[in-house]
Structures are given as C-alpha cells and as structure tokens.
Amino acid sequence: MKDIEFIIEGMERIRPEMMKVRDAIFNYAELPYKETKSAEILCETLTKHGFDVKRGLAEIPTCFTGEYQYGEGGMTMGLLGEFDALDGLSQEAGCTVQNPVEENAPGHGCGHCCLGTGALAAAILVKEYLETHQIPGKVIYYGCPAEEGAGAKQFMARAGLFDVCDFIYTWHPSSKNEVDAMHSNAIMGANFYFKGRTAHAGATPHLGRSALDAAELMSVGCNYLREHMIPEARLHYAYIDAGGTAPNVVQDRAVVRYEVRAPYVRQTKELYDRVVKVAQGAAMMTETEVTPELAMAFTEYLPNFALARIADQCMQEIGAPQWDEADYRLAKQFLESFPEESKKAIRQKFMEDYPEDWEEKWEKPLDSEIHPFTPDKVYLSAGSTDVGDVGYAVPCLNLNVACACLGNIGHTWQMTAQAGSILGEKGTLAAGKMLALSCLRTMQEPQAVEEAKQEVLRRNGGRYTCPLPDTVKPPIDTY
Prior knowledge:
Helix content: 40-55%
Number of domains: 2
Strand content: 15-25%
CATH superfamily of the largest domain: Zn peptidases
Number of helices: 14
Order of helices and strands: HHEEEHEHEEEEHEEHEHHHHEHEHHH
CATH architecture of the largest domain: 3-Layer(aba) Sandwich
Radius of gyration: 23 Å
Strand order of the largest sheet: 1-2-4-3-5-13-6
Number of strands: 13
C-alpha cells in the first residue's frame, strides 16, 4: 500500500477517537501552564497507542513527550502539539451567535484543541507506518504547553529536548491551506515591580513615594520611545497590580508587564534593554525602586526551505479539506457575524486577494485549494510564536490548514466556535494527514534533511542560543 493510501485509510480508522480527543480538549479549555486535563488525555492516548510517555519536562508540569522507536537507527521525526486556551473566549461549538458556555471563561480562540489533536493523529499514523512496513525510525510527539502565555518551546529547546530530532513538523488552524511563509517577530516579556512607600495621600503625601506614579511615568517614557525604534517593532503593556483601590493611600507597589517585539531576537534584546532604562529612569524620578523580571522570550520563526519543498508537495497530494454545501453555509454565517467595521476590512482584503471572483468567495468563504509555497514571498508578521525557537535548534516547519472561514479573525469567539465545529474537524483531519505524509516523505530524502540542517546552522551561527538566561525559569504562576 502506498504511503498516501496508508495514511488516508488509517486516518479514517482513528477519526472517531481523534475527534473525542479534540472535543475533550475543547471542553476543558485550560489556560497556559494549567492544561492538566488536556495534557492527560493526550498522554493517555499516546500510551494506548504504544508510545513511551515522559511527563513534567523542562520544569513544566504539563510538558511531555510521547516516543515510539521501531528497530534500531533510522530518522527521528518530531511533531509539535499545543493545547492551551485563551481567557474570556468561551463559546458554544459551531454556534454562529455569541453564546459562551461559561461567561468570561477560557475558550480555544486560536484552535489549539485542533492543533494538538491533528499532530497526535499524525504521530500515530507515522508510528503505524514504521511498524507495518518494518522501517527503522523514531517519532516523537511533543506536548507543548502555554504557547498563548510565556511559552514552553524555548525552555524545551534550552533543555535539549529537540536535539535528538532530524526534523520537526507542526501546523496551525488557519483560514488558508499552505506551507506557512511567515517570518514572525521575536518577542521578550517582563514584569516590572515598582516599590515605593505608603502615606496618607491627603494629610502627608510628601512622606509617600508612589510606585503607581513610577509605573505611569514608565508608560510615558515608553510612548516617547516609540518614535525612536524601528517601524516593525512593537511595545505592549498591561497593569498587573495598580497598588490597591484606595486613592487616599499613596501606592507602595505597582506591577506593569511589558512585551517588546521586533523581527529578530537581537533587535528585541536591544529594545528590551532600552525599556529597562526607561523603567529605571521612572524609578529615579519618583524615588522608588524597580526590579525587572524577564519571564518570556521567543526567537523569530522562519520557514525551513528544504522542508517546505517536501511539505508543499505533500499538501498538494492530500488536498484541501473536502467542504460540502452545509460547510459553506456555516462559514458564511461566521463571516457575517463579525462587526461591520471588521467586515469592511475583510471585504477589502477579499478584493485584493481574489480580484476576479471575490464575490463568489464571499458567498462560499472556505479555502478549497492548496496555495503553493514560494520562497521569495516570505512575509513579516507582527505576531510571535515559540515555534521559532524550535526552528533555531533543529529543522522545523509549520503548515497552515483551514479550520475557519476565509477572512476569519483569530482570538475571537468566532474562532472558538469554528475550532469546535465540523470546520475544525475537517481541517484537523486534513492536517494530520499532511503532517504524517510530510514526515514519511522527508524520512526518505536524507539529502534534503542534510540541507535543512545546514539551513539551521546558517541561521543560528552553529548552535541554538536561548533568548532567556538559564536563571529564568518557566513563569508558571507569575506570568
């Protein structure tokens, strides 16, 4: 039986089990580093299928691997699975009007319930292929928590968990089917702890030193800094602790979280150092103290061109998810559910992307084709992902597979609903087949694997360097 026939037949057989896993993770909807139930069902399924599971890796309780080795030697293939949710995006699966399962509860607004399940299916299919055809090799499923939080893959890479792999594939729920041509921004995030002195704000304000004033002055300084950084860079902030709720007490504490982004991690580090200086200046102006606590950092993601060539062909052979008329109607309802201002921007993007038939696409807004990968069309994205750190350690590639309507906006209740719907199901199953076939085909091309490894060495200068110092531990309860 040909590899593609083996994968298609195998996916149909394990489909009910995989959808039970997807649905369970969707319903658990656990926040970063707290994905205990989601991790457990993935580990249980891996164990059931003959994988050797190791838990609590890289000092993260919900980080795990599932390994299967057939014979001796052969290629070692990795698959990345994510399974964390986003706060406040609870939504009934498949429902085209906003209807939280639980008000203000988490939901899978980035589709990670699909992501982790699709990679799981691929790992099982590759394992079965090695076993059935008696081909030496190893497949490793990496359970990667907290992509929406401070991440896990940089800590996993620092711990050397990916070093055993010859190559690694992953995927992400999307509105299009394509090898991901994104160059993501690198990112660094830190909590800034300001310490002051309390006093009666009416009677003796001169005796107080306001930590909240310092935090606000830091924001002013960072806003002035925006003029003097590269245009691709970004600064984001949020108050974690404003120092209490009593305005007649000078606040002796304040915590503000800053995240900085830039196209390359070296630029991000430079910008972060400047933000630290702004914080120190704010503390000096207010006679307070500040302690920056670096907690997260992701290296930029770039597609591996050697792997992209193989995966692109595999995606073409598997084909896009097979949509029917009911799917198109559902997708149109989700598209129409976005606010008018958003729909105006989406419609404009439709006209740019589909100048000849944008109105037809608007009526049937599901991607039904595989868009070919073109190396010279890699584009810079403002977003960030810890998958970048994997790609700076070993050859790694991300595939995008449609699980939502064209024009979809991520991190919304609409994405949560689609991830739990038939759209998410069909995308997940297609992704699993694409990942599995990509692994098998790559395994058969040692020269391509060597080219992929050389590509990594050119980018990382000879070895992976974590953007976080060894002293920074996973911020499980602080970020």
